[in-house]
Amino acid sequence: MTSRAYPADFWRLWSVGLVASVVRWLETVVMGVIVYRETDSPFLVSVVTMLRLLPMGLFGAWLGVVVERFDRRLMLAGMIALLALTSAVLAVIAAFGLLQVWHLAVGSLVNGFGWLTDNPLRRTMMGDSVGRDRMATAMALDIVAMNVSRMIGPTLGGVVLVIAGIEGAFLLSAGLYLLALGATLAVAARNTPSGHGTPVWASMREGFAAVRGDRRLAAILAVTIVYNIFGWPFTSMIPVIGRDQLALGPEGVGLLTSIDGVGAFVGALLLAWRLVPRWHAGAYVGGVALYQLGVVIFALSPGVVPAAAGLLLTGLSGAAFATLQATLVYLAAPVEMRPRIMGVLSVCIGTGPLGFLWLGWLANLVGASTATALTGGLGLVVLLALRPLWRAI
Fold it and tell me: CB within 8 A of 263, min separation 6: which ones?
C-alpha cells in the first residue's frame, strides 16, 4: 500500500497528530526543566507531567459521548485553538517574568485535555477517512509520526530553551499549534451529529455496557490496562537505573533512553510495511508480553549492552501494541458507537497514573531496579491470567 492510496484528509489529520506530539514532548522538557529549577523537587516534576494524563481517566468516556453530538472537525479545531492560546498565554506570562509553577501545572492539565481528544476525535476521523481495511496500516503510520516526535520534540525543546528562553519555547509551541489548526480546518469530511435526544450519562452507560457485553472489546481494553499499569510506567525509572545501576552520566542516560524510541520507530515502520489482519490479535497481545519481558531484562541488566537490548525490545514490541490498540477498538466497536467506545479506551489509558504511583512507591521501598523487575513480572502474570479473556480478540 503506497502513501498515494491514502486520501488528503488522512494526511492532514496525520500531520495534526505529528505537530501536537512534537509540541507535547517539547513542552514536557521545558516544563520539567523549569519546575525542577524552581522547586528542586523531582516529585513536583513528576506531578506536573502526570497532569497530562489526568483528563483521560476522568473525562474520556464523557468526551466520547459528546463528540457524537457535534461536528468532529470543529471540535478538534476548537481544542487545538485552546492549546495554542494556552501556550501563547504562558509565553506572555514568561516574557513579563511572572511565570510560576502553578501556571505550568495548569498548562500541563490543558495539554492533557488535548491529548484526551486524540482517540475519540482525531483517530476516529482518521479511521473514517481510510476505511476499515486500511485502519491498521494507517495507525502504524500514525505511530511512526508519534515516534518521530519523540526524537524531535525533546531536542527542539532543549535547544529553543537555551536560545530563546521560556517565552520563545512557548511562542514556538503556539505557532506550531496554529499550523495544526490550519490542517484541521482543511479537512473536507463531515460527520452527521447524533444522539441529541439521549442524556449524556445514559449514553456513557451504553458505552460501558457495550464493552462489558462484547468479549472482544473487554479483552482489548483489559490488555490496554495491563500495559498502562504494569508496563509503560517503567519509563520513569530509566534515568534512575541508568545512573544508579549502570553508572551512566546525563549524556549516557539520554542516549540509553532514546533506544526505546528508536526501537518503536523501526517497529512502526515494519508494521506499516508488512502488517496484515490475521496478525492483529497475536501482535497486540504478544507485543504487550514482550514489552513486559523487555522491562524485566532492562531492570535486571548488569551492564549497558543488555539494558539497551531490553529497551530495544520494549520499543519494538511497544510499537505493535500502540499500533493495534486503537485499531482493534475501532474495528470491534459498533459504527454508531465508535467515538464513545474510543472514549472508554481513553479512560483505560488514563489508568497510567496508578502505575506510576505504584512503581514510585515500590521503588522507595525496595529500590528502582527491583521494583521495576517485579512490576514487569507482575504484568506478565496478570496477562497470563487474562488468557481466557484475550483469546476472544
Answer: 311, 312, 313, 314, 315, 316, 318, 319
